[in-house]
Amino acid sequence: MNRPLVVCTLLWISGYALAYLFNLDWLSLYVSLLLAIVMVIYWGLGLKFRIGVCAVLLVLIGAGYYENYDQSNRSDISLPRDAEGVGEASMVLAGFIASRVEVDGDKASFTLMVESQQQEKQEDESSKLGAKPKFVKEPIAVNVKLLTREEQQRAYSWQRADRVVLQGIVKLPAEARNFDGFDYRDYLRLQHIHWIVSVKGIASMQVTQPQTWTLDSLLRWNDQFRMILAQRISDIFPAAQGGFMQSMLIGLTDDMDPVQFQQFSQLGLTHILAVSGLNVAVFLACLLWVLRKLRFTRETCILTAIALMPLYIALTGGSPSIVRAGLMAMIGLYAAYRHTLKDGLHSVLFVGFVMLLWDPYYLLDVSFQLSFLVTIGLIVGVPPVNTIMPIRSQLWKNTLSISLVAQLISFPVSIYYFNQLSLLSLAANLCLVPVFSMVTMPGGTAALVIGFIYVPAGQALAWLVAKVNDWVFMVVSISSKWDGFQTIWPSPSIGWMVGYYLVLAFLVALLIRLKNEHHKAAEPMLKAVRPGWQLERNGQMKWNWMKKNLPLPLAGISLIALLVYAYVPDRWHSAGEGHVDFIDVGQGDSILIRSPISRSVILIDGGGTVSFHKPGEEWKLRKNPYEVGSKLLVPLLKKRGIQQIDYLVISHEDADHIGGLQAVLEQIPVKQLVYNGTFKPGPAVEKLFQTALDKQVKLVKASAGSTLKVDTSTELLVLHPIPGEAAEGLRIEKEQNGQSVVFMMRMANTRWLFTGDMDQAAETAVAQMTAASKSIDNTHTSSLFDAKDKPLNLPELMQQGPIDVLKIAHHGSKTSTSNTWLQAYQPRMAVISVGASNVYGHPHPTVIERLQQHGIQIMRTDWMGEVQMTVNNGEIKVRTKLKMDR
């Protein structure tokens, strides 16, 4: 209790965590006030167990504060009754722009602070408005579809604080459609945004400049100045480095190269790209050095630095990490000004407490979590680690201790959110962070300042910094391509993370004790003993030896066991269970299969984003467009701990099936790629196969009759393409649906049929082939990987007859799933992978009617989101991400 602020802050945060993890509706701000009164009285009376009781009460007070804050996060915007079922309505909204306007290709987005809403009448005269405007005060996310290049230029002129009146479609943000997937609705809710409005063209908008001064006017000027800084950075630095330097110096990531960002991310260097405590330290060092050279007094230097720190926080974007670092710097500077000692731990926790009082949702922000955890870890952990570091040089000892502690402290949070760790991360930070902190940041800042005075001089200095950056980029690019050093970790549980920190702290404490014992003077091995000691001497000596020597290896073994469990948790539970996940990738297919015995991973297709742009529409292209592989599929696979894909099956080469696989091949090791033996001309397909060849992935052509025995309980049999169609060599085939790889899977006494986008002609050919195979001797089948001859003798389990699950072909198009096909295989369940509100009209009503007539249970990703099936001893359990309400 020597640090009451530390204890109280930790208890307060525990209360937040308690309220977030559990449903505590009975808590409120009034309950917290009542508990606070009780706590003060209990403490003042000096009753028994007052420390423990007051600690519990403080936790509950914090929980009540968070619960009240969370419950008040509600929307005042209401939709008309007849629109609530679909969650959208046409509305007229008036307010002002409350964020920086981002224009990317044919899309402009910003936050609108709504001050009034007016619902459009749902009558024939749609131009008439309904009731009087309703006055509200609530932020809403706005997405404007820009129709012409002229509209794009107009959008570039919009700024924060502009007055806006618009008419658009108001709807709920998209929620997570896959288990463990990104929840956009929850993300916006943490920013107090509950609705998004879509506007088509700026003809539905009126944007005017503000007529009165408001607080947002200051932020408007700040945005303008940041844009001026960004432009000057682009002017003095080479084009290839402008986005990188903007991100590092002023926190603007708009022009950051996504490939370069991915390379830094793989090496654990993204903290370099985010403005944080390192930037504050460099800024203060440069500022104080300049002020001292101008012969300002010590007090003037400190007060000037304190005064300029809020401006620096604003200019760099005001992220939680920069706010934390800036506030701590101001506290430290003020302590220096007052000639008082600064307690780093008290400072960081006090800043954290203030920030959490201001916005309790900061606790859920990964930037906030990493910033405070690493800072606290460095304050608490570096001194003891320094004492056990066997290095004489104080400089190298401090450098290594800081890097090691930062890595160990940030590790659980990093793998929880990002699910990857490079074994080169520590070395990369040791080598590259000093370069950035001593060259890139101070040199870039100096070049920017000088560039405002005299551009050529700024360009000269920027040229030197750019040459250093080129060397760094080369090292990062080469190192990030060493796949053998990349590890993928599934997201651990909160309990595991707590256990990790406890074991790590215990291990460091034991190492410190061991170090101290070595420094003690040698003592006699045997001393005078108490009477009776000789009777238990052997047992006592053995116990003393165990107490002295066992804790350290036990702590080390415990830490290793925790790491092993976190890396492969699937090996310790769900034994004998197979998993088939129909991932919702929108209008496309992606199916993840994990076998029960060997835990082999099979991925069928990877979805894809189809885009259509005509010549002359290059202005519509976005800097970092949504790509289903890198944004959805790969993060999901990593979060589920998919560290290697044993068999990557490409049913066919249409964009909605292979588009997401480029990111998969680039970021997750693949052993074998199975495809239909054809090639569809196009840059995407060519790049995909070239990447597979570069990474030495084995390419295997599939044809009917080939089998793959995954383990004793899982077997795959290819039913299509038929051997007559699969000629030797690579065949050019533009129309791919009829060439889809179709295969039957047997898993733990269940049968599955995966169909790609096969058409009815392929269905007829497969049905005839499997029917004919019944008259053939079934004692031999060919191997998918060994035999060149492919006889059509199919195992009895793989022939026609009732199956458990059918993946409906071509997203439910009427060109597939004929009555003959359904009669041949009589599926018990059918899964349709289809995008919500797709423009193709999938699934076709005729297909749905056929399935219903055959009494087949239908599951579809557009209504249910991801469909997960667990297989255990012939039984299939199903769960869906979304509840089907239709």
Structural write-up:
There is one protein chain. This protein has 886 residues and is an alpha/beta fold. Helix content is 47%, strand content 16%. Helix 1 (4-21) crosses helix 3 (50-71). The longest helix has 29 residues, at 425-453.
**How widely separated are the two ends?**
58 Å
Chain-averaged pLDDT: 86
* Regions with little confidence, pLDDT below 50 for 5+ residues: 123-129, 521-535, 784-791
Estimated radius of gyration: 32 Å
Total DSSP helices: 28
User: How many strand segments?
Assistant: 27
Largest sheet, if any?
A: 8 strands, mixed
Amount of beta strand: 15-25%
Give the % helix.
40-55%
Structural class estimated from helices and strands: alpha/beta
Strand order of the largest sheet: 16-14-13-12-11-10-26-27
- Large-scale geometry: globular
How would you name the oligomeric state of the polypeptide chains in this document?
Answer: single chain
